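## Example record

The block below lists the input lines for one assembly entry, exactly as stored, with component labels intact.
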Amino acid sequence: MDTYINGLGLVSAQDTLASPLIKAVSWPQGPIYKAIEPAYPQYIPARQARRMSRFLKMSISAAQHALSDSKLPTVDAIITSTGLGCLQDSGKFLSEILESSEGTVSPTAFIQSTHNTIGGQLALILKNNGYNMTYSQKGHSFETGLQDALLKFELGEVNSVLLGGADEITELSYDLGSKLGLWKNSIPSSIEGFMTEGSNKTNPGEGASFFVLSAHQELESYAKIKDVLLWNGAFDKPLMHSKLAAFLETNLGTDQPLDLCLIGTVQKEHWHAISEPLGSTNCIPYKHLTGEYHTAGAFGVGLGASILKKQSLPDIYQNNPASAEPINSCLVYNNYFNDYHSLTLLEAVEV
Amino acid sequence: MALNGVAITGIGIVSSIGNNNKQCWDSLVSGATGIGPMSILQSRYQSELPVGEVQLSNQQLQEDLGDSFKKTNSRTTLLAAWAMQEATNLAQWENDPNIVSGLISATTVGGMDRTENYLKDIKSGGQPSIREVAMHDCGAHTAFLGKEYGINGFTSTISTACSSSANAIMLGAQLVLTGKLDRVIVGGVDALSLFTLNGFNALFILDATPCRPLDASRKGLNLGEGAAYLVLESAALAEGKKKYGKVVGWGNANDAFHQTANSPEGKGAYLAMQKALKQAQLLPEQIDYINMHGTGTENNDLTESRAVKALFEDVLPPLSSTKGFTGHTLGAAGAIEAVFSIMALQNQQVLPGLRFKTPIEATGLNPVKKMRAGNIKNVLSNSFGFGGNSSSLVFKS
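Predicted structure tokens for the full assembly:
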């Protein structure tokens, strides 16, 4: 069963909500890629928004944007994913407990701290009684949610799915991440400066990426999702090459070229390991736009889908050889802390 | 999709009523509750709020589980490993790269217990190791155990509040039936934490006495902890193995009413049960026992009862909630009650609830009070949660 991306909403550190094909990179002011917050009143009634955390508002906005983009009034299922969930509310409730030594605490932050808060709120707002799931598996949170969505299409259980991945960074999570040795202190201002050699240390980010998936191609469809492959494990070049070759052979055939590859990594070795065997395929990076977070792979898929729809690269990649050839296929490789790898193949829709 | 469901070749459990299948079953038979004062979790509510605590310290769990578990003191990971060990032993699980194996776990707060310990230590001027928070995220225990069991296929964690592990079982069944996995370990875990204890307390839905699910006088739930896992295998792999039952039905719906309260008529619950029966190709009268979500809160028990009455009309099967034994184990509840449901099939016994006296006036349901023999072919198990997440499973002998 073919699955199409028919609607998209990307909230990220770039101005991607209106169009993911941005004209210039907005580099962060500090070591953290903070997301650009959408104009919430466009997406959420003020009365509801007052009670929502920034994370929840960003996610609901991205989801509503994707829905209106798809022009579908509703969907058959809602699948969300997050590596760390509602950090601000969890942290807030935890501090309240500890500050008061388990005294009287307000339940508000607790209520909104569960990982399924986004999925539950979306069901509530859309009055949607359908299938509702939330995945949380580190750097495969979004990708396993995507696999579930594809399974539901394959089984014929759904005609449409609202699928999203979202993570936020808070002061507490940044601080704990620093102590765990995850972050770089430098402020990125170029792709070269963002990617490191021999280290996974990186600049953290956040974002919310939502998709409306459909069993039907529409006039405004972005792309078709061909397949997803996931694996775990430390950097292993031969393994990466064999996974890549087998995946492309299965899904693209031997005679079809791969037109574009989006590489989401913070480390130069990964870049080379993926781009080298692809030969003449145009390869472009994307994690320098978002910073690193568990569901950053969703951003890559969204960007790839947008490029396939517009049949052109955003201006920020203007140094790449411009080509008049159509872009029919786009592979997205995402790497999370060198343990979570994914390959997602997208295809242009036939017009 | 295949109508005869997917075979269960192993079950494992740890809860406040027992450290393994046999101990849990014995407690269900003797009516021994696991609800009591907390001794392992350090909280100011120690003497005020009873809980269903697993009677094994982290150190005991680590020692018995062996060397690879010395690396982690996340109670969530240890409890999960403990129950998974029993389930995989029964299924004669061998790590084998030629078998496509999956792991789908479920939890609501993951390694929160360690994170709160860490922050507590910091607050009191200590210098705790940052490794304490390394297992914080919900996927951490799954990643850790995936390596232990040589998992080479689909690996993920579901976090849909109190329906989490029912959803893990549902997804695992689908992945095996569609041939995407040859076998899969499915289930869930949650350890008691200050976070959840204080959270439910702030919502005023904790009973300061042992809970009374489905009773007119119920005052709330008791929190519990534990883990349970099932091994599901393809028909080819399960051939010749002992089968504990089959997963034949599943339904997932959203109540879409309120973040924490159910709709008055229990719409999500009704839809989940209806979908599960449809998937199992069973009529309501073919269900021989319902293991209710039955938390003991005012709202859940009333709305779930209404949904059950609406679906089953005049042919109500025997039903009960086993949360009077275990407390509400949150992300583990769906899997723990799946194991209980499978035990009901295995032993041909209807499971009792504890401390029930008076039916809820509006619905008049009379849960089973004493374990009794029955001809049990199909069991329905309900799990509902915050965010409107509602899931039901059907198990067949």
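The CA atoms of residues 11 and 217 of chain A lie 24 Å apart. Chain A is about 35% helix and 20% strand.
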